[in-house]
């Protein structure tokens, strides 16, 4: 019949592990599982009990097999619920939430048919209230929600040290949502594709005893380069998921390739993690476990799951290499040869240890160990064999009892080897979950390509503010909160996300507008002498740090008879629509209370304007000018670096867009240095990475190149988005 057919179809569609298919089909065919509710309970039971044999009595109890609910029982349960809510029903009539009645009746008779309960509720409510009246048919008025004040909205929208206010869809909230899809600690076997062995449940029990059911994640970077914007998503995801679910996150350096690792990378990686607002539960290294990994490699050989191979690297590259002629060599022989590898009796490339498995992408027998005669920064000359990522990663996760091994989508092809290796050694097996990478347009993040940019002089170093490494973004002035907000907006996606840089810049503007105090600077100074200055010496002008909220304080700047304005704020001829200073068009000087009027224009021999002589008038007695401009007086000399995109095309690595390669796509105007800019003296005590909004110019950050007497500022972003870049 149709109902049985639907149950059979749903069983086949929803059952992940087919080994229990015949078992469930028998119950449906014998009409002992009759409803979708029972089927859902049955599917959950077999998912939660992966080991054979199933306890039939416990299964039947969990699925309501044999439970018979009579119409009289349903009638009595509904009567009891309606009697309990009789007063509210009579008061609210058909505006009452009928779902509440059904839910309470269902809780009393869990295996009853939902449709039958609904029909009984409808019947008894009609008997109590009678037919619906016109008033009953009117929609219930909605209760108005309290609105946040603008200041409160702004407050909850900004990430502080990795946190975000509860009123917005933060990354932490998204990650709590993802927890519904991820397994709970200790329930690894409920994950699709997870391999269950006879020892799985005992190992999970030991795991829970060690962790107490705590969520554990890890961020495992290779210490052979600087972290970039893509890593920011990984940091937020790993640390954020642990934090959102009351767990901990390890920072584990994957230091298995001593040829490329440097101490500066270890330091910079931890610094960037902490800069983004996260504190590792523990800082570990793959090299901490070299002894254990070597012991497990010997055990893998003894179990016939690994062998020493002499094929060259070139022979085993690609997806269809020839099978190894040494795959079936005797265990004792592989043990002796592996020991010879450890003792340095083989040269680099002459021998590897390979695991006996085929990966999802068809790659056969991945390498577990290779010979490298390179001293390790932590273990020195102790080892001349080093484990690979495929061998190390899952076993380090197992040692640290990681619950959720979160990695980017390209590692999906290694999931089978991850599960295989843990199970081959009978050790605790975590679950690998993949998510989409975060990429940006108009940039490159590959370590090799950034090194080429540095070597060719296209950029200064890994922290050049035109790059999108995290050290470069910090140097340019991007606040960590803005980067975290950007990651939250990108979201936790399985698909790869490729974003425009202006979206990151918009996040920076939001944070800097709230946190960067105002100052005044002039990039192309034009000298202005006030001939009727109202005082014999400089006056002090109070300037609000945040004009929209003067309660956040003021700073003082000197106002002298000589001031400097932007060259572009003066024209000898005022065009239609031009509102700033011109010979017959006065302007106000911001924050001073004075308006200036041009009296004399002084030029050099080439005819270039080099000075203006003006008179000033109090703004409260003069006609309101068309514009107010910024200025500086008794200023500090400074250098200002203005940045644009490093590359001209969206995808500089794409041969179809840039046939000549990424180095041919460099933007010649990506950096403009203003050597003789002026800034007001309020910033005199600023330190590297302090941030300001220079009025009318943009957001700027103090560069570490600043010296006594010559400050250097990097422009982080302009005040408004350039429509041409959107």
Automatic annotation (TrEMBL):
Q: Which Pfam families match?
A: tRNA-synt_1c (PF00749), tRNA-synt_1c_C (PF03950), tRNA-synt_1c_C2 (PF20974), tRNA_synt_1c_R1 (PF04558), tRNA_synt_1c_R2 (PF04557)
Q: What chemistry does it catalyse, as a reaction equation?
A: tRNA(Gln) + L-glutamine + ATP = L-glutaminyl-tRNA(Gln) + AMP + diphosphate
**What range(s) does the Glutaminyl-tRNA synthetase class Ib non-specific RNA-binding domain occupy?**
1-114, 117-205
Q: From what superkingdom does this record's organism come?
A: Eukaryota
Annotated keywords: Aminoacyl-tRNA synthetase, ATP-binding, Ligase, Nucleotide-binding, Protein biosynthesis
Q: Which CDD domains match?
A: GlnRS_core (cd00807)
| EC id | 6.1.1.18
GO MF term set: ATP binding; glutamine-tRNA ligase activity
| GO terms of biological process kind | glutaminyl-tRNA aminoacylation
Occurrences of domain Glutamyl/glutaminyl-tRNA synthetase class Ib anti-codon binding (ranges): 516-616
Question: SUPFAM superfamilies this protein is in?
Answer: Nucleotidylyl transferase, Ribosomal protein L25-like
Among InterPro entries, the record links this protein to: aa-tRNA-synth_I_CS (IPR001412), Gln-tRNA-synth (IPR004514), Gln-tRNA-synth_Ib_RNA-bd_2 (IPR007638), Gln-tRNA-synth_Ib_RNA-bd_N (IPR007639), Gln-tRNA-synth_Ib_RNA-bd_N_1 (IPR042558), Gln-tRNA-synth_Ib_RNA-bd_N_2 (IPR042559), Gln/Glu-tRNA_Ligase (IPR050132), Glu/Gln-tRNA-synth (IPR000924)
**Ranges for domain tRNA synthetases class I (E and Q) anti-codon binding:** 628-703
Q: PROSITE patterns from the xrefs?
A: AA_TRNA_LIGASE_I
Q: Which residues form the Glutamyl/glutaminyl-tRNA synthetase class Ib catalytic domain?
A: 214-513
What GO CC annotations are associated with the protein? aminoacyl-tRNA synthetase multienzyme complex; cytosol
Does this UniProt record's set of keywords contain Protein biosynthesis? Answer: yes
Sequence similarity: Belongs to the class-I aminoacyl-tRNA synthetase family.
PANTHER family, per database record: GLUTAMINE--TRNA LIGASE, GLUTAMINE-TRNA LIGASE
Name this polypeptide is given: glutamine--tRNA ligase
Q: Which organism is it from?
A: Sterrhoptilus dennistouni
Q: Which gene encodes it?
A: Qars
